[in-house]
């Protein structure tokens, strides 16, 4: 059977002193779950792995159950294939990620069942500071560095969709894509 390359984005791992797990432990958990060629990237729950399973919901349940055994808490997970990551990279808005001196760039990954159409309605960008654009199962969020404290991105933490998003900066997103290739 052919193996498929996946990226798992674990929401809320090693953030604010919560759900602490070392990357070598996380890597071992993925191996124990039956996945191969497991790579972790930075401490925030980014895992690249191969699996023969084609049903993402089955993958999510396997990972979620294994993490629950270890952390005793439910973790929301976004699973992406290499082709989905390619689409995210290729469909980025024009000039997105190109001016790191003046702007901070983030990709808001959406965890099912949340859709981009639903999610974008919850963001209230501050004019002249924030810019948000919709992609396929992601939102591209940029904000002016000089006005960073006025950005409304942090307000999403109190919204009803917060548990169904996982945010990565653009540099991390690009690095994860390169590691998947």
Describe the overall structure:
The protein folds into two domains: 4-84, 2-Layer Sandwich (Alpha-Beta Plaits); 87-167, bacterial protein sp0830 like (Alpha-Beta Plaits, 2-Layer Sandwich), CATH 3.30.70. Helices cover 28% and strands 27% of the residues. The protein is built from five helices and eight strands, in the order E-H-E-E-H-E-H-E-H-E-E-E-H. The chain has helices at residues 23-32, 56-71, 82-90, 116-120, 170-180, and strands at 4-10, 36-41, 46-51, 77-81, 103-110, 130-134, 138-144, 165-169. Strand 6 and strand 7 form a beta hairpin. The protein starts with a strand and ends with a helix.
What is the structure about, briefly put?
This protein has 181 residues and is of the alpha+beta class. Helices cover 28% and strands 27% of the residues. It has five helices and eight strands, in the order βαββαβαβαβββα.
Write the layout of secondary structure elements.
Blueprint lengths: L3 E7 L12 H10 L3 E6 L4 E6 L4 H16 L5 E5 H9 L12 E8 L5 H5 L9 E5 L3 E7 L20 E5 H11 L1
Antiparallel strand pairs: 1-3, 1-4, 2-3, 5-7, 5-8, 6-7
Helix pairs in contact: 3-5
